[in-house]
Design brief:
Length: 145
């Protein structure tokens, strides 16, 4: 279930970070978005491979939500539209604000499986918690400038 939920969660972070390539103007946001995209796409690939090996389905965002399992920190369609419409400093601040909430949701999801008996799942959960906690600190520092 963790992998099935985290894949669409990560996919949204990748989508947000892809927007930064053409909309962000602050070098720190551009670099952080590149880092996030570079970290999360390989994690999506790993979780997809796990699900395939386990004979489980890979769900998209709508399928995961239809199962009734909330994904903490996910942006609404309106928030995604707002991010897509923004550029420059406005985009930078929205991206930072939304990515903080998005990462906080991923951390909460990861905490639920950090003690998993599956070593790969536990290791990924620990990595998500550590990496995204650091990125939240950077994003908060950016917003405080």
């Amino acid at each position: 279930m963790f992998a099935q939920m985290m894949i669409p969660h990560h996919e949204q972070a990748v989508e947000m970070s892809t927007l930064a390539e053409t909309r962000a103007t602050d070098v720190e946001i551009v670099a952080l978005a590149e880092l996030i995209k570079g970290e999360q796409q390989p994690e999506i690939d790993s979780m997809t491979a796990w699900l395939q090996a386990w004979g489980s389905s890979v769900m998209d965002h709508d399928e995961a939500m239809a199962m009734g399992h909330g994904m903490q920190g996910m942006l609404s369609d309106a928030q995604i539209a707002e991010l897509k419409a923004a550029s420059g400093p406005q985009f930078d601040r929205l991206y930072a604000t939304y990515m903080i909430a998005h990462h906080e949701g991923a951390i909460e999801m990861a905490k639920q499986v950090v003690e998993s008996t599956n070593a790969d799942v536990a290791a990924l959960a620990k990595s998500i918690i550590a990496g995204q906690t650091g990125e939240i600190e950077q994003l908060k520092a950016f917003l405080e400038q």
